[in-house]
Design goal:
Distance between the termini: 39 Å
Order of helices and strands: HEEEEEEEHEEHEEEEEEEHE
Number of helices: 4
Number of strands: 17
Strand content: 25-35%
Structural class: mainly beta
Largest sheet: 9 strands, antiparallel
Number of domains: 1
Helix content: 10-25%
C-alpha cells in the first residue's frame, strides 16, 4: 500500500534518502516521514499548569533521553496516558494521549511527530504506519512532481485548502472552518481520486498527487497522496505562516476520527 512519504525519504530507492510512500521525517533534517486524514472539533479550553514532560519540582523525574538520536530532537518516546508539552516546537504544543501505547518520535522547532498504538517509526519511513504530524510552516507542493512550491498559491490556510480541494487527482471533502488549540483555520480530508494514473519520478510507477511541502523549520516534508491513503489536514494561520496538522491514515480513513480526538485536545502557546 502506498501512502504519503516525504520527498527526502522518497529517494531512498532511487538516490539515498528517499522512499515513496509518504514520509514525515527525512534523513537530512530529522523530519517525519508521512501519510494523512480530516475532521474538526473545538480545542481543550486551556493547558494544564504542570505536565509530565516538565516540572518545577526539584525531585521530579528527569526528562527521558529521546530514543530517536540525530532525528527526534527532544522527543519523549513511549508515552503513558497523560498530558505533555513540547520543548523545541514553536509554538509550544500541549497534548494529551490516552493509555494504549502512543509514542512521541519527534520534537523539533518545526516538526512534531506522534505515533498511534501498534505503529512504529520504521513503518512511518516506509509509508505503512499511521501518524499525527504537526509542521509549523507549509506550502502547496508543485503538481509537476519537482519537489518545489506550487506557483501562484497564497500562503494562507484558506488558500491552501482551496487549492487542494480543486487539485486534479484528489477527492476531498469541502474545507470547513475549525478552531484547533487556540488557532483558527480549516480542515479537509483528501484521498487519491479513482482512476488517477499519473506517477511521480519517486513513486515507483504508482499513482500519486503531490500535496504538502514544508518550508523554513519544516523543510524536508514533502507529502504526496497515493492509493489507500487518507490525509486529514488541519490548516491554521500562525505568525504569517500556515501551520499544518496532518493525520496520516493508511487504512483509508477508518482511524482518522480516533486521531482527531487527540487534535481536539491540543493547545498551542505557553
Amino acid at each position: 500500500m502506498i501512502g504519503s512519504k516525504r520527498a527526502s525519504d522518497i529517494l531512498v530507492g532511487a538516490v539515498a534518502c528517499t522512499a515513496f510512500l509518504f514520509a514525515v521525517s527525512g534523513c537530512a533534517t530529522a523530519s517525519p516521514s508521512t501519510t494523512s486524514g480530516g475532521g474538526a472539533s473545538e480545542p481543550a479550553s486551556a493547558p494544564p499548569s504542570t505536565t509530565p514532560s516538565e516540572s518545577t519540582s526539584p525531585t521530579a523525574t528527569p526528562r527521558p533521553r529521546c530514543p530517536v538520536p540525530n532525528r527526534g530532537g527532544s522527543c519523549l518516546g513511549p508515552l503513558a496516558a497523560g498530558t505533555y508539552t513540547t520543548v523545541e516546537f514553536v509554538p509550544r504544543i500541549t497534548y494529551t494521549v490516552p493509555a494504549g501505547g502512543w509514542t512521541n518520535w519527534e520534537d523539533l522547532p518545526g516538526l512534531f511527530l506522534l505515533g498511534p498504538p501498534g505503529f512504529d517509526l520504521a513503518g512511518v519511513d516506509e509509508g505503512g504506519s499511521d501518524y499525527i504530524g504537526i509542521y509549523s510552516s507549509v506550502v502547496a507542493a508543485n503538481t509537476d512532481c519537482s519537489e518545489s512550491e506550487q506557483p501562484g498559491v497564497v500562503q494562507t490556510a484558506a488558500a491552501l485548502a482551496a487549492e487542494f480541494a480543486q487539485r486534479r487527482g484528489l477527492t476531498t471533502t469541502t474545507p470547513k472552518p475549525v478552531s484547533v488549540g487556540g488557532l483558527q483555520g480549516v480542515v479537509l480530508d483528501m484521498r487519491l481520486a479513482d482512476g488517477w494514473k499519473k506517477p511521480c519520478f519517486y513513486s515507483g510507477g504508482d499513482p500519486v498527487v503531490p500535496v504538502l511541502r514544508g518550508v523554513g523549520n519544516s523543510s524536508g516534508v514533502d507529502h504526496p497522496i497515493g492509493p489507500g491513503f487518507m490525509m486529514r489536514l488541519y490548516l491554521a494561520d500562525f505568525s504569517g505562516r500556515t501551520l499544518a496538522i496532518e493525520l496520516g491514515d493508511n487504512s483509508g480513513g477508518t482511524h482518522s476520527d480516533t486521531y482527531s480526538a487527540i487534535v481536539t485536545q491540543l493547545h498551542f502557546g505557553s
